[in-house]
Amino acid sequence: MAKIKEVITTANTHNILASGTKITGDVHAEDDFRIDGSIEGSIHCKGKIILGNSGYVNGNIECTNVEIWGELTGNILCFENVILRASSLLNGDIKTKSIEIEPGARFEGKCSMYKEQHID
After folding, report:
1. Torsion of CA 37, 38, 44, 50, to 10 degrees
2. Which of 58, 84, 86, 92 gives a 20 to 30 Å CA spacing to 104?
3. Domain count of the chain?
4. Which domain holds residue 100?
5. What is this structure's pTM?
6. What is the mean pLDDT of the chain?
7. What pLDDT shows up at residue 12?
8. What angle do CA 51, 34, 59 make, to 5 degrees?
9. Shortest CA distance to 61 belongs to which of 53, 87, 101, 84?
10. How confident is the model over 57-111, as pLDDT tens digits?
11. Could you give the CA distance from residue 29 to residue 64 in angstroms, rounded to a whole number?
12. Phi and psi of 72, rounded to 5°?
């Protein structure tokens, strides 16, 4: 009988917060994180954050990449790319390397961009 070896990898892993679910407190994630529920607290993610259409965050976000479809009240510190989709509502400041804003996106705050690999 042949042995089957289970291989565990984190290459395509991600976290999902489903619609109707609420977290109160700060969140720390090693991998990508999709938010369709709500979070009252800051998020620190080493991967990409997707804030879905029904997603809401009241707190700051620190991540590698972020794509906003829903609503964020807080600041973004993003090491690579921020995307504000047409359905997004952002009340807060952005510090990032690059940004894309679709027509219809609502953004109240300021944005600063940098060229170096790290943020001061």
Report:
1. 40
2. 58
3. 1
4. 14-113
5. 0.84
6. 89
7. 59
8. 50
9. 84
10. 999 999 999 999 999 999 999 999 999 999 999 999 999 999 999 999 999 999 9
11. 11
12. -130, 125
